[in-house]
Amino acid sequence: MLDLDVIWRNLPFLLLQGFLGIGNFVGGTLRLAVPSIILGFILGIFIGIARLAPQRWIRFPATVYVEFFRGVPLVMVIFWMWFIMPIVLKTSIPEFGVALTAFVIFEAAYLGEIVRAGIQSVPRGQVEAGTALGLSGTQGMRFVILPQALKNMIPSLVTQFIVLFKDTSLASIIGFMDLTKAAQVVNNREIRPFPIYLFIAVVYWVCTYSMSRYARHLEKRMGPA
Amino acid sequence: MNYKFNWSVLWTGESGQWLLSGLITTLELSIAAWLIAMALGIVSGALRTVRFWPLRAAATFYVEFFRNVPLLVWMFFWYFAVPPLLPQAIEDWLLAHGLEFWAAVVALGVYSGARFSEVLRSGIQAIPRTQLEASVASGLTTFQAYRYVILPVALRLIIPPGTNESLNLLKNSSVALTISVAELTFQTRQIETYTAKAIEALTAGTVIYLVLCVSIASLMSWVERRTAIPGLITGGGRRRR
């Protein structure tokens, strides 16, 4: 049942091509997850700030954005990008571009909420102190609030990265060669589903579990914010 | 943008039928998986708070292993890897009765159960330990204390995060299209394949998901207000600004 030889034979393909994205195909779980979280976080900062804006016309679209993407399955968003990007941009887009866009847009809704919670965790007195020192609203946000908010956000950001890391497996449905797709390719050749899928489950688990331990460690070290 | 909209594809031909049957399959899949997830979540969530460590360790292993691996991998695992290991008669029966549906139910149920478990555990831990001690002191066994004192309160406490997880389950059911369960996303794709009208088909699917999520969320916030325990949960779901 547990035929480890099949794993050993395909280990370079699974890990180099599928996990890291080094090889003949464009792919790689990490190559998709890392830029997605970085770009998603940058977009999320704007959305989080917009959710707290005093002006209604800024707050409202940001709220709609967040509520919309949190009410729709990620699979649906991936298909949307897959069909709509070539129509809008009038050129074919590689799977990597489609998947990256879908993840950034989708994750930004969740990351925006984390940013919002982070900003709200900064005591109100800090804003007032900034204003009293003569900082403008933007400067106060940039130099006083965001640096402190960011620190409070780190544990939730690691947790969200774990979610994103698992979600990247869905990029395989449009043909992106990530770890899951690589396992499918290997399984089509070897027909050994049990060891192959169990193996990639363990690979995912090792990554996500160690990250979640790290998030817990960070939370403990920082104490209740 | 050089795209000709033709919304009538949604109500001509078989599209309406496909969307309806997709919606029904999504609901069937979600409800069946939800029942498994609730059962597993309650049992493992409760076991994670007991004193006897082997039970606690088993529950921890279940939760940490199943929720930290992508659902898609579990779909493939339960669909491709598990059936060949079953006795021939059971495998034949499953193949004749929609194997992909039952594989998706188990995959989604077991995965979500691990996530429900964490919600339930936090609910149990929010109840003062003295409640358990008082129950045991008044002559209940630990099982009875959980069954009659701890769990009824915990289940009411976790309605908001539980609703959130249930909506996640509903949205996650879309992953079942990868093992060709004909649920809502699958049917949306089918309309696109037949009519080549992607935007219309995706809009229909998206709107159905949104309506489902919003109506379940508002229904549950009503349930939450109805079941709020006076003195324990104040304000019942209404957010304060």
Commentary on this structure:
The complex is a heterodimer of chains A (225) and B (241). Helices cover 80% and strands 0% of the residues of chain A. With 225 residues, chain A is mostly helical. Chain A has a single domain, classed as MetI-like (MetI-like fold). In chain A, helix 2 (29-51) packs across helix 5 (95-120) and helix 4 crosses helix 5 (95-120). Chain B is an all-alpha fold and 241 residues long. Chain B has one domain (12-227): MetI-like (MetI-like fold). Chain B contains 10 helices and no strands. Chain B has helices spanning 15-47, 53-67, 71-81, 88-96, 99-125, 129-137, 142-157, 159-172, 184-195, 198-227. Chain B is globular. The A-B interface holds A 1, 68, 71-76, 79-80, 83-84, 87-88, 90, 162, 166-170, 172-173, 180, 183-184, 187, 193-194, 196-198, 200-201, 204-205, 208-209, 212 and B 1-3, 64-65, 68-74, 76-77, 80-82, 84-85, 167, 171-175, 177-178, 185, 188-189, 192, 198-199, 202, 205-206, 209-210, 213-214.
Please outline what is shown here.
By secondary structure, chain A is mainly alpha-helical.
Number of strands of chain B: 0
Order of helices and strands of chain A: HHHHHHHHH
The general outline of chain B is globular
Number of helices of chain A: 9
- Per CATH, the superfamily of chain B is MetI-like
CATH architecture of chain A: Orthogonal Bundle
CATH class category name of chain A: Mainly Alpha
| Beta-strand segment tally of chain A | 0
Sequence stretches where pLDDT stays below 50 over 5 or more residues of chain B: 234-241
How many distinct domains of chain A? Answer: 1
The chain pair with the largest interface is:
A-B, 39 and 40 residues
Number of self-contained structural domains of chain B: 1
Beta-strand content bin of chain B: under 5%
Mean pLDDT of chain A: 90
Counting helices, strands and paired strands, the structural category of chain B is: mainly alpha
Q: What kind of sheet is the major sheet of chain B? A: none
